[in-house]
């Protein structure tokens, strides 16, 4: 528009006036709070065939300052930056944890973990997390909302905010049983004791206690192709500088394995959440009668009182291979959010056949879905039980804005 008027600018003063208008307009556009994108790489993750890495990386690269996270996406890449397919190296999970460390050398405790909204006791530290499904799962936080981080006034005095990244990856080149390895079947890892050398319970046939950092899944006899490969978790953060028009959201991590107990404390009734994170799915479908009865579906559920009320902004589940769906229902039975698995159908990274490559998400119309403070909600996780599944999960991450 400016170009058009300049070409027909007969009067010099008018041209100057239009130029000034244009410059003012563009200056205003530049100061508009825009979404920025930064792409980072985790430290190196070196793996040989069958090997497991489950390591914590403190003080990772992260946007600086008081910002609102608008999305966080991640994937495993190799040294050349190529996406690594899940059948080569399985991304079991990545987790981001907020913590504070002393700004100066001092006698202060070296680490204080940031508190997110919960509800699980152990994993209420998790700020964000995902797994194999990370490539095809939408993570954006819609306007005007944002996950607000880096607010200096949130840090305890003398501390600054840092982020810890945990990445659990399993290299399944040349292994006997890829699904068995990614389900962390203890036999395949030749693991019978926990990290402290205590025997694992006899009914614990698979899970994270068996595919620990440094363990190796059974390789096919004679497999000797391929040495170590260096991988990185590549993570892409979209964020905005904090401004008062951004409405902060709170993250809640819900877990279908939650064991909820009521305690009568000095403040009245308090709920304690002991989340187990993993569970086992028994094969429950050997014949046509079984199939008619339960459709080869294992259903697990838990109900508890939700601590605080709010408006649902975003919801996404986390399930492993065999997973069908995970849902949150309200006290009146209404569907608050249902997240279903997306399975790959091909060979490219992001579409690996047989793997969970994505989870569907909920983006309700603003304000249309609410959870009441103290409302009893029910989490229902479904897996296909035509075969046994070890170490599966039924997690739900939701972002809530205050009502
Ligand atoms: C391969 O990587 C592992 C760590 O996963 C390391 O312990 C081992 O020494 C490496 N092997 C070679 C040949 O570099
Ligand atoms: C902190 O103090 C220790 C020993 O007192 C010293 O080795 C270290 O270099 C100091 N670090 C910084 C960042 O000043
Ligand atoms: C988080 O909560 C724990 C336990 O209530 C507390 O010790 C810790 O100081 C809190 N962290 C922050 C950063 O407030
Ligand atoms: C399994 O572990 C036991 C001891 O923990 C060891 O003796 C045995 O050689 C291991 N088997 C394989 C196949 O690595
Ligand atoms: C909880 O404890 C208080 C006294 O500490 C008692 O008056 C109250 O009845 C108790 N409530 C329940 C539900 O047990
Ligand atoms: C089907 O399998 C179940 C065990 O999964 C068994 O209890 C039941 O008897 C079987 N029914 C038939 C008709 O074979």
UniProtKB/TrEMBL annotation:
Keyword presence, Signal: yes
Protein name stated in the entry: Stress up-regulated Nod 19 protein
Signal peptide stretch: 1-29
Annotated Pfam families: SURNod19 (PF07712)
Organism: Dorcoceras hygrometricum
Keywords, in A-Z order: Signal
Recorded superkingdom: Eukaryota
Keyword Signal (UniProt): yes
């Amino acid at each position: 528009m400016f170009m058009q008027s300049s070409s027909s600018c007969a009067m010099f003063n008018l041209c100057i006036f239009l130029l000034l208008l244009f410059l003012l307009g563009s200056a205003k556009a530049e100061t508009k709070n825009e979404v920025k994108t930064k792409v980072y790489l985790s430290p190196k993750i070196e793996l040989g065939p069958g090997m497991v890495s489950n390591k914590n990386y403190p003080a990772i690269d992260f946007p600086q300052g008081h910002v609102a996270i608008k999305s966080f996406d991640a994937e495993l890449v190799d040294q050349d930056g190529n996406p690594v397919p899940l059948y080569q190296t399985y991304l079991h999970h990545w987790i981001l944890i907020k913590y504070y460390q002393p700004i100066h050398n001092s006698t202060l405790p070296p680490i204080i973990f940031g508190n997110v909204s919960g509800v699980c006791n152990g994993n209420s530290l998790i700020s964000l997390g995902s797994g194999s499904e990370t490539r095809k799962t939408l993570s954006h936080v819609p306007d005007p909302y944002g996950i607000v981080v880096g607010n200096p006034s949130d840090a305890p005095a003398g501390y600054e905010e840092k982020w810890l990244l945990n990445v659990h990856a399993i290299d399944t080149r040349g292994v006997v049983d890829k699904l068995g390895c990614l389900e962390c079947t203890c036999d395949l890892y030749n693991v019978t004791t926990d990290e402290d050398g205590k025997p694992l319970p006899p009914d614990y046939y698979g899970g994270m206690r068996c595919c620990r950092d440094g363990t190796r899944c059974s390789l096919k006899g004679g497999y000797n192709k391929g040495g170590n490969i260096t991988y990185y978790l590549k993570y892409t953060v979209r964020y905005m500088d904090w401004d008062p028009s951004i409405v902060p959201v709170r993250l809640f991590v819900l877990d279908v394995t939650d064991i909820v107990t009521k305690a009568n404390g000095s403040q009245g009734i308090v709920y304690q959440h002991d989340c187990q994170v993993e569970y086992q799915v028994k094969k429950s479908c050997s014949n046509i009668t079984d199939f008619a009865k339960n459709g080869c579906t294992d259903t697990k559920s838990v109900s508890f009182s939700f601590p605080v009320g709010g408006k649902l902004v975003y919801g996404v589940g986390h399930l492993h291979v065999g997973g069908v769906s995970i849902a949150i229902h309200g006290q009146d039975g209404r569907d608050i959010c249902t997240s279903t698995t997306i399975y790959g159908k091909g060979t490219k990274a992001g579409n690996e056949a047989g793997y969970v490559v994505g989870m569907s998400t909920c983006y309700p119309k603003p304000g249309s879905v609410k959870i009441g403070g103290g409302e009893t909600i029910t989490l229902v996780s479904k897996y296909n039980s035509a075969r046994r599944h070890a170490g599966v999960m039924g997690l739900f991450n939701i972002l809530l804005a205050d009502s």
